[in-house]
Design a protein that fits this description.
This protein has about 240 residues and is mainly alpha-helical. The chain contains 13 helices and 2 strands, in the order ααααββααααααααα. The radius of gyration is 25 Å and the shape is elongated.
């Protein structure tokens, strides 16, 4: 056997642990059987016998699935399929002071993309009460707020209301999770790069667009409101590329 044949024989060794394999197999079976939230799965002893592994392996695999929010234990029902709480899962992962810089910047970009893209949902579901609340919010902001690059209190209050107006609970929860990462990017100086700063649309002007404009106009307004964020993050990306 020559070296090429030897390399071919040695390729593709499965190095995943037994727990990994059992976890993946369980998910595959859940999907194949089209199990829904509330459906019960066999007990640990039954799973161990059926899969030919120890109860310890089954228990650890199920614990992983519980951490992911895919299953949960219910009194008198045993272990059942559960609809994962995406916000709870993300909350365990989005810890700004632990995330590396690349991930922080990715989270930063996700927020920008979400806020530019949610105009149609806001317009479809806005109410007169929503507009009144936004007006109350902007009325207590300083007059020069349209020139402020970033103020976390103003952002949380105003943008949090916009997320609420989408009527999308997951999106609203997500905003609460990513805003600290957004703030952390600024506090750590990740975006302290030179770039031509532009005068952006203020919160007050966005409220006017919500009252009198169209979804397209509001979307463009939100893009201009976030313009300096886009300028700085793109400049930072170009700087990183140039340094490689």
């Amino acid at each position: 056997m020559d070296n090429r044949d030897l390399k071919l024989e040695l390729r593709g060794i499965d190095t995943s642990s037994l727990v990994d394999k059992v976890e993946m197999r369980l998910v595959e079976v859940f999907l194949y059987k089209e199990l829904k939230p509330g459906d019960s799965i066999p007990k640990e002893t039954e799973l161990a016998t059926l899969m030919g592994v120890s109860r310890t392996v089954i228990r650890e695999s199920l614990n992983r699935l519980k951490t992911m929010g895919l299953v949960e234990s219910k009194k008198h029902k045993g272990t059942i399929i559960k609809s994962p709480d995406l916000s709870a899962i993300l909350e365990k992962s989005i810890i700004p002071r632990i995330l590396d810089n690349k991930t922080l910047m990715d989270v930063f970009e996700i927020r920008l993309a979400l806020e530019v893209g949610m105009a149609d949902f806001i317009f479809a579901r806005k109410t007169a009460e929503d507009i009144e609340e936004l007006e109350e919010i902007v009325n207590i902001e300083p007059d020069h707020s349209d020139n402020i690059m970033f103020d976390v209190d103003h952002e949380m209050r105003f943008h949090g209301k916009l997320y609420s107006m989408t009527g999308n609970e997951t999106m609203k929860d997500f905003q609460n999770l990513i805003l600290p990462a957004f703030q952390h990017v600024y506090e750590t100086g990740l975006l302290q790069v030179k770039g031509k700063r532009k005068k952006h649309i203020s919160h007050k002007e966005l409220v006017t667009l919500l009252k009198k404009g169209t979804p397209d106009e509001f979307r463009e307004g939100m893009r201009r409101h976030l313009e300096n964020h886009f300028v700085r993050i793109l400049a930072a990306s170009e700087g990183q590329a140039a340094s490689r």
